[in-house]
Specification:
mainly beta; 4-stranded antiparallel β-sheet; Methylamine Dehydrogenase, Chain H
Length: 362
């Protein structure tokens, strides 16, 4: 029988859950108490799965730790794994994203940071180097900070080529390279920025999250600040798919691990409230690439609910049927073992949930 691992990063530490049925979970933690865990990843390419955690200490600053024994012990490099070169005159504020590449790039792990930058590791996340070409991009100087800061929060690699990478910045937009980072192109055509004089600029959109369709790596889904979009050409052009939603603002977005055309999001009222739409705890799912969306709420609270789901706090696993998980700022974690049809409360009274990741262990 397979086992599932659920990693929950919170404002005060990392909690790790393990389960054989995805309904009953045993949690350990907090690991890194009093550290904010904004990013966590599980790399299953090595013989022993490696957990990577971006731990942000208010005293010692941000660092990347790793565990090769499912959280029993942790290691930190003697010098910071992610650091800006001296010539940049910049200090690391936060690691927003940790992303192991696929089998097309063995040993490669990416990190996205605040200030917005991309770092690349070739040793499984023990040390990272700055992508100098994205840092030197002439548009970077005009990237602004979103409400939560200026972060490179999304990294998508392409299983067809180790040289193709897509990133998203808040507030800067989507950028893509197909030559291993030698050049980067803005990929925002069709994405609206209502807060700018030109509502469809080349860059400067406040993108909240991007996910890739499992059946077609050129199909991407995007949650923007006030818009939900789909691209069928790897980000070259975007079209609005939010007309069937009760609100088009939100942070969390995840694609189904196996079924093409299927994605999940958690819409919020904005900008005046930034609370769940109609004060209801509901995940919305599309199975037709955004033409229609259906609310999923069986097992979720039916009374007024105020738990906001952040951009990395909604995810799927890779089991069959797929599991779907989200955590909120109320400190609750919910999970579905049947692709969102029904939900269970997996944990509660945790600190503010910042990120959630789930995988099936080999």
């Amino acid at each position: 029988m397979t086992e599932s691992l659920l990693a929950v990063g919170t404002q005060k530490g990392l909690f790790l859950g393990r389960s054989r049925d995805r309904r009953t979970w045993d949690f350990t933690g907090p690991h890194f108490p009093m550290n904010a865990i904004y990013s966590v990843a599980v790399d299953r390419r090595p013989e022993r799965p490696r957990i990577l955690a971006g731990a942000d200490s208010s005293h010692w600053g941000p660092s990347v730790w790793w565990s090769d024994d499912l959280g029993a012990t942790w290691q930190e490099p003697t010098t910071p794994a992610v650091r800006f070169p001296e010539h940049t005159g910049t200090s690391l504020e936060r690691v927003w994203q940790l992303h192991p590449a696929g089998p097309e790039a063995p040993g490669v792990v990416y990190a996205g940071t605040q200030p917005a930058a991309l770092f690349r590791s070739t040793d499984g996340g023990e040390s990272f180097a700055l992508d100098e070409n994205l840092w030197a991009h002439p548009q970077r100087a005009e990237w602004a900070a979103g409400f939560g800061g200026q972060g490179l929060h999304t990294i998508l690699t392409d299983r067809r080529s180790p040289d193709a990478v897509t990133v998203a910045v808040s507030t800067g937009g989507v950028y893509r390279t197909t030559d291993g980072g030698k050049s980067w192109q803005p990929s925002n055509t069709g994405i609206r920025a209502t807060f700018l004089p030109d509502e469809y600029p080349e860059f400067g959109q406040c993108v909240h999250k991007v996910a890739v369709d499992p059946a077609d790596p050129d199909r991407l889904y995007l949650q923007n600040h006030g818009g939900v979009y789909r691209s069928d050409d790897a980000g070259g052009h975007w079209q609005d798919i939010g007309t069937d939603l009760p609100a088009t603002f939100g942070f969390g977005l995840a694609a189904h691990p196996h079924h093409g055309g299927t994605a999940y999001l958690f819409p919020l009222d904005a900008d005046h409230a930034r609370l769940p739409v109609d004060r209801r705890c509901r995940v919305f799912r599309t199975t037709d690439a955004g033409a229609t969306w259906q609310p999923l709420a069986t097992g979720l609270p039916g009374e007024d609910h105020y738990g906001v789901v952040l951009r990395d706090a909604l995810c799927t696993d890779d089991a069959s049927p797929a599991g779907v998980y989200f955590g909120n700022r109320n400190g609750e974690v919910y999970g579905s073992a049947d692709e969102g049809e029904s939900w269970s409360l997996l944990a509660q009274h945790l600190p503010d949930v910042l990120c959630v990741r789930a995988v099936t262990l080999p």
